[in-house]
Input
Amino acid sequence: MSEEDNGRVALVTGANRGIGREVARQLAERGYRVLLSARDGEKASAAAEELAPSTGAPVTPLTLDVADPQSIAEAAERVRAEPGRLDVLVNNAGIGSDFGVAGVEPDFAAIQRALDTNFYGAYRLTIELLGMLRESKHPRIVNVSSGMGGVSEMGGWSPGYRVSKAALNAMTRILATELRDAGFLVNSACPGFVNTDMGGPMGATKPVEDGAGGIVWLATLPDDGPTGGFFRDGKPVAF
Output
């Protein structure tokens, strides 16, 4: 990392466990100051305390429930106060509220929960933090999506999860287009079928380190890197 890179700040949501935690670890290892957020402040603090000594970089806990607009506003205010800058936003927080539910027999309350976290949460947080990101010389936004939200791979079941991730992908394309001239790189990442608390019970075997690697690649792209794309393991996939 060059001298210019020193002090870059990255915020990773839903980072107390799983892919988010590994993304935070890998970014910290690269010298980024990481703001590690979780709905539960104690869990965020515990994860930050465990990661900081092993990476040698500052890892700061942040209480943030992306499904709660008030929590988003309060967290953004804390970031504006300290550290007062932001270079990378990784919208990782997400839920699977209706896995296996048929689209012809929808659970609309579960669909709303998925949208509130996976789409509206990421969108609201991004807009709330956009002012600080605009001040960065190398602003990066990574939206952690899923192949289940890609229309080209779209199948049946889990309508809330699928629609929320498809909406997140649409937001990626919209913001990438509008922010291109401001130097932003905005992309979606599909980590794949990763052995986390969400994927493990469904038979996922892909190591968390590998799933996080593609996200970190997008978060640390050079200025001539792609924008407005959807990637899995560093390779473009159809939306």
